[in-house]
Write a structure and sequence with these properties.
The protein is an alpha+beta fold. It contains 18 helices and 15 strands. The longest helix is centred in the last third of the chain and has 34 residues.
Length: 674
């Protein structure tokens, strides 16, 4: 396909642009999948998998809130993987790679529908595909299962609205509604699609000042807003009726200022130009942005320069950047209202996943500012070098005498983009063309490219500077992604699970455990009770056996190794009888003081004893009572008890027994020192 004269943009034909875009998408998907595969599941992943393993596939399970998030789509995918694969990471890497591919393809289709045909379309596409701000969404499943569908829904919704504005066809309203419902099916934050679509329509397709543009947008495309309002109100009623309020109050103005400074200075601006270049590790979770001070200023400088240059070149660019600023403020307001005033407010502004959806808006705005909106009529006839270009609203006849196929109608109409046919003969699309996008004319001169306003004598120097800037941003992106991959690859949970699997495969069949939390660096205690081993290992093929009473207990240490168990906690004071400690006969009760009191809780008791015969005994700790069997000879017994106090009472309740003990410990199971 050749590039027609007057075609804005560039020297690449449509086929070559599409090929380059597909190569970029493939590289992005493979690269992100490689980074993701270096890591493993983390934190919230385990909780969601445990909940799936414990539940049947029911409506109640799908629509249950998780940390106040409504994500039935994510719960469905997790349940299916858990049910048919088990506790594994590769299915989630595959799903995230598929999501990344869908996002890239749908976004490129949006660019071709919304913007003028140009090789510069690859700039916003590259921003979306490679921005470090979206790394978490393509590597950490608990993030990707929310953010990737939301990003895809954002792109589909904008594309549907643009199609409706360009053609007036009502089928685009169905697509718009479907896109919003898709996003809400995975993440309630997708409600931001509604104001995004409205503001984008006003910024890109309505003329006049702010008031006039908003009024024009409401009046001219009211079916979109009516439909989106109904869906939004329905979702809000359903969500708010099930959720608890997540709103928090910041503790001070300084906290708000620090949050905004961190969010814009340390995360968004550096992230849009390949930063943050440095990461701060956060355990098994994704690292936090920690750019050097110089990097922060570099980010601001590059973004400011791009904004200034594009605004000077194209009037519609100013509106595009205002759209990005408005969306950033919405995201910042939502985060400030739900994250500040908590224990994590100090790092809330440095978490890229909170702003990964901003990249979609930034990429759209960059495309509008650099490439420009598509003409409302850009009629193109395929030609050969020997044939002239024929552009007309009437049937055309090529030089060969055969009718040439014309692509006509309202909207994005050029050789590279899919077009909508005229919805009805003579029917006008619901809105005038943007002020800076006049109707095409086959005799008009080519639209200036990126260097249009630059005098000829400076173009070579400016081109060199722009190329060097793109190379620098690209190298920064590679460096940032590689450093992220290093941080993401360090996974305590993977090592712990792999070790447990190996240990369980070689353990004797009678190996049993008392339930206990997994290490905090695998599942934080804030996720209790889903940090308990009995729940953590629900999705395992071969699970440890957990008991409440046994003669010989084992324990999993922090590395996942099976160790002989003992009890760490309070112990009884030494008994008065030499060689026996405390002597307890049948029907007798002996009080034994502890070296330190135990508060009311669920404890494990270990008693080591020497008994003259078999029988039973009862141990009391405050209000807690536990009965256990006694066997003749030197033995030990582990059992659970719920209680608290500074003294235990031991009673032999049956059998002709004389029992000696000087070993009673009350606390938590732990590996026995070697």
């Amino acid at each position: 396909m050749s590039t027609a004269p007057g075609r804005p943009g560039g020297r690449l034909s449509g086929d070559r642009i599409a090929t380059a875009a597909l190569v970029m998408i493939a590289v992005s998907v493979l690269w992100r999948a490689q980074v993701a595969s270096r890591g493993f599941l983390a934190a919230d992943d385990y909780v969601l998998i445990t909940q799936a393993a414990e539940s049947r596939l029911t409506v109640e399970h799908l629509f249950a809130l998780y940390n106040n998030h409504l994500m039935p789509g994510g719960r469905l995918l997790i349940w299916l993987v858990t049910e048919y694969v088990g506790l594994a990471y590769w299915p989630y890497v595959l799903l995230m790679a598929i999501g990344q591919a869908i996002l890239g393809i749908t976004f490129f289709r949006l660019l071709r529908r919304m913007l003028r045909p140009s090789a510069l379309l690859l700039l916003p596409l590259g921003l979306l595909l490679f921005s470090p701000l979206t790394l978490e969404a393509s590597t950490w499943w608990a993030v990707g299962v929310n953010m990737l569908p939301m990003q895809i829904a954002m792109v589909l919704a904008v594309s549907a609205q643009v199609g409706y504005v360009q053609t007036g066809r009502r089928r685009h309203l169905v697509s718009l509604a479907s896109a919003l419902l898709l996003g809400l099916f995975f993440f309630e934050k997708s409600i931001l699609i509604v104001p995004l679509v409205f503001l984008l329509t006003a910024a890109c397709y309505a003329d006049g000042g702010p008031v006039r543009a908003i009024w024009t947008t409401i009046r001219r495309w009211w079916p979109s807003w009516l439909m989106l309002t109904v869906l939004s109100l329905g979702f809000a009623a359903a969500y708010l009726g099930r959720s608890e309020s997540s709103l928090r109050r910041p503790e001070s103005v300084g906290e708000v200022f620090s949050f905004l400074t961190q969010m814009f200075g340390s995360t968004v601006m550096p992230g849009l130009v390949g930063g943050p270049w440095q990461w701060l590790g956060a355990g098994d979770g994704a690292p936090v942005a920690s750019p050097p001070q110089l990097g922060t200023w570099v980010g601001w400088t590059i973004v400011a320069a791009v904004v200034a240059a594009t605004v000077r070149q194209r009037r519609r660019a100013g509106r595009a950047w205002l759209l990005l600023a408005a969306y950033l403020l919405m995201v910042a307001g939502m985060l400030a209202a739900t994250r500040l005033g908590s224990a994590f407010s100090g790092v809330a502004g440095g978490v890229p996943r909170y702003v990964s959806d901003v990249v979609v808006v930034a990429a759209i705005c960059l495309g509008v500012a650099v490439v420009g909106l598509a003409r409302r009529t850009d009629l193109t006839v395929p030609t050969t070098p020997a044939q002239p270009v024929i552009a007309s609203t009437t049937p055309a006849v090529a030089a060969t005498g055969q009718p040439a196929r014309l692509v006509s109608g309202h909207g994005v109409i050029h050789a590279e983009a899919p077009v909508d046919p005229e919805p009805h003969p003579g029917r006008a699309a619901p809105g005038p063309p943007p002020a800076d996008v006049p109707p095409s004319n086959p005799t008009e001169p080519p639209t200036p490219g990126l260097l249009g306003p630059v005098p000829e004598r400076y173009r070579e120097a400016v081109t060199v500077v722009l190329v060097l800037l793109l190379v620098a941003v690209g190298l920064g992106t590679v460096w940032t992604t590689a450093r992220y991959g290093d941080e993401w690859a360090a996974k305590s949970g993977r090592s712990y699970i792999d070790t447990v699997r190996i240990e369980m495969a070689s353990a004797p069949p009678d190996t049993v455990f008392f339930d206990a939390p997994v290490p905090d660096n695998v599942v934080p205690r804030l996720s209790s009770p889903y940090n308990l081993q009995s729940r953590f290992f629900r999705a395992f093929g071969t699970r440890p056996t957990f008991v409440d009473e046994t003669d010989n207990a084992s324990v999993l240490d922090d590395l996942g190794r099976i160790q002989v168990a003992t009890i760490v906690g309070s112990i009884i004071q030494p008994g008065p009888q030499e060689g026996c400690g405390y002597r307890v006969g049948t029907g007798e009760t002996v009080r034994m003081p502890l070296n330190e009191p135990r508060f009311e809780w669920h404890w494990v008791v270990r008693i080591g004893y020497l008994s003259s015969a078999d029988g039973t005994a009862t141990l009391r700790l405050g209000d807690g009572v536990a009965q256990f069997p006694i066997r003749k000879g030197l033995n030990q017994r582990f059992f659970r008890i719920t209680g608290g106090g500074d003294t235990v009472e031991l009673t032999v309740t049956s059998g002709e027994v004389s029992l000696c003990t000087n070993e009673i410990a009350i606390g938590d199971p732990a590996p026995r020192p070697e």
